[in-house]
Amino acid sequence: MEVEFLALKDLTSLEKSFSVETKEDGSQGEKENVCIERRKTTPLKTTESSASVFLMSRKSSTSELPHITPVKRTVLAEPWSPTTNLKVLISAASPDIRDREMKKVLFRPIENDKVKAAGSEPLVEDAEVEDSAQFEGAFDEEDAEKKPSRKEKSLGLLCQKFLALYPDYPPAHSPIWISLDEVATNLGVERRRIYDIVNVLESLTVVGRIAKNSYIWYGRQRLWTTLEELQRKGREQGYHLQMDLPAKARRTGQGQEEDGGEGDSGNAGGNRKDKSLRIMSQKFVMLFLVSKTQTVTLDAAAKVLIEESRDSSSHSKYKTKVRRLYDIANVLTSLELIRKVHVREERARKPAFKWLGPVKFSNSGNMENTLDVAQGEAAVNEDFRRAKMARHSSFSITPTTVSVQRQISSAPSSPRHHLTGFQNQCLDYTRKTMSNGPVCQLQRGGSTDRLSVSLYAQLSHSSTSSLPPTSTHPTVLAAQPHPEHLLIPSLHCLAYLPSLSQPSVVMLYKAPEQQEWAPAGQRSAKTESEEEGKRSWEENEQEEAVVTKKSKSGLEKSEKIGAQFQTEAPVSSLEMANTTASSCLSGQQGATESHTGNSIRDHTQPSHYLYVPNSAGLNNFNFLIPAGQPPASLSLPPSGVSTMALPYVLVPSAMLSHYPLVAGSVQQQASDNPTSLGFSLPAMMSPATFMVGTTPHSVGDASEISGRHLPSPATPEQGRPNVSTAGTPCSPSGTRQNVSINTSDSSTPHTPKETTASSSKAFFQTPGTLGSIASAVPAARKRGSAQRRLDIGHSAAP
DNA sequence: TTTTCCCGCCACCAG
DNA sequence: CTGGTGGCGGGAAAA
């Protein structure tokens, strides 16, 4: 696994190399800091959102800096495509998100520019990239305007990214550890935000708390069981009655649960604190589960919750509750358990949410572990499907991808855990994907078969974890384990999104076989989803929210494109993406032909691609590297720096972002984006070769960088394999080499630290693994400390 | 305007 | 204390 990570990193690094210089800015490194700081300090923050992540590593050098001004960097970072890409993918998965994504996408280039302007960087990247630059220019136009909008920072989006980092169904035997610090760092947000997400996830047992800053990722394995329990509890409590009641009537017996209730769900340690968000989340979910309509209005939920808490339900209380519910709803939406709708009640339409998850838990309770869940379940339960539908799970990251594996390099990092799980997951994902609403539409397209393209993404950042010591992460150990598996699964996997904001790399590949996958059940699911989609269209009112948005925002474009196959439905961005990818792989030409995915699908070309989001330097371009390919293309020199030559495809990020590119319908895009995209895929894809410098590992560097204790490779923790080596067999592509890419050295002078650090470490590590620490930690902590100071100041000062 | 909800202050708590 | 958590609500961006 690690390998993979490494690989990703490497990839990242590659990117970096391009842009290398960015790193040099010292400041840039820490996004975290940046993020944090910037907010306060600069307005710039706007953009920031998540993107920044990767950079973190750099920060290593200066632990202190963090606070300092990172702004520039941030900016830089953010804009990037990586994030964007994610978003895109995500969006594909879920419409809502999509919208946001779309919007966002547009601007990144701009941002980049801005950044440049900011001056911090050097831009070298640009220079290097030059070509790209040109392209960029083109793209820029499109981007031009966006900025940071609030949406980019939304909890929902953040949650998506978070979810994308881990597999829905991690292997039972190898738990995935999560370090909040790392996550925060990777996602480029403050910890505070992560708490919000984690608390909700914990309430549903998607994660379980182990210790401070440490959580275990359960994914959806326990979710169904938890939901079932919640349903039971909800009934016991009479929530269903309450729902019906007017407002206050209910009160019936609520008291009991309150805090205690949740227990099983997962909270490990009971804290009273848990109270609110966690409990509130469970109660909110209960309301859905006991609701006949499976639709709950915020208003009703808030009232019910208020009563329980017995608070005085002053208006302010109500307001506060509603705010919290929005937070929860955003997370649940990301989980695809609910979706926003509007219910018109008497006079007006009220915001409400509709449950998309399972309602009947026919199976005996424990599905969780079962088989590996996904498959079995999927097949079996409709409910599951439903749940799945939504998700963009596809995005989830699974780590494993081959590419990743390969890499490994040094980083100590972490978390490979994911990997293990993958296999299963992969399957699942696909299914999900299939099933998912968004995707579902494929059928229409006529292509029943989907291609399975998988995207693997990785985080580039190195988050180096700050916590090295933590130690506890057993997971680590586990994780590594069997690279092989990884590979296999990968075949099936539809898509993995890069989890992070910056996925450094994404692998796209098409499954060789075509599958028939969708078993009847799934199909049905699809159908449903489709139907839903239709309804929404038809129905306008309620659901529309989602749908509409899509259409409005980016969708139109995509849809148009997609139209060929589908109409209304939200296009499955994924497909689009897939298509694209596949097309690329296959030969570019296809794109045109295949407007639809079909053609593409047909192509069997399996190919794996490594998708390298353009990072800083190349704003607009993304590289698709045929992984599978022949190694020939790649060569790795054994020793440290080596350069690889890879055939690659440049894809304007913009395009990627808008899925549209895919189909060949460049035009459409064009329409959207005014100038930019001029190219059609085919064109875009021109293959080329590119050299990447590799550095074997930067691990050391990283450690150095951080200065911290970082264990660096050696880290005790886990035994993670560490590093290097890695060699995991990568899969299909076999080219692990690519992976290795990493590095730093590459061409630029840069600071190794940064590069390495960032690149290498980060990826997924889990919880404390990496040494990255510095970067990550600092930011968070610093921030925290800062606050503290403030706090202290208060208290003390007086 | 209203709906959403980001942001981060600040209280709490465990170590 | 110190640092991790997370309640809470102001206020501003979306709708």
Topology, please?
Elements: H1 2-19, H2 21-24, H3 31-41, H4 56-59, H5 71-77, H6 81-93, H7 95-118, H8 124-143, H9 155-165, E1 176-179, H10 180-187, H11 191-203, E2 207-211, E3 214-217, H12 223-237, H13 239-244, H14 275-290, E4 295-297, H15 298-309, H16 315-334, E5 338-344, E6 349-355, H17 374-380, H18 382-390, H19 402-407, H20 417-435, H21 437-440, H22 442-445, E7 453-455, H23 474-479, H24 483-492, E8 506-510, H25 520-539, H26 541-563, H27 573-586, H28 590-593, H29 597-602, E9 608-612, E10 621-626, E11 642-652, H30 653-657, H31 666-672, H32 681-684, E12 687-694, H33 699-706, H34 736-740, H35 752-761, H36 776-796
Antiparallel strand pairs: 1-3, 2-3, 4-6, 5-6, 7-8, 8-9, 9-10, 10-11, 11-12
The structure holds a DNA duplex (15 and 15 nucleotides).
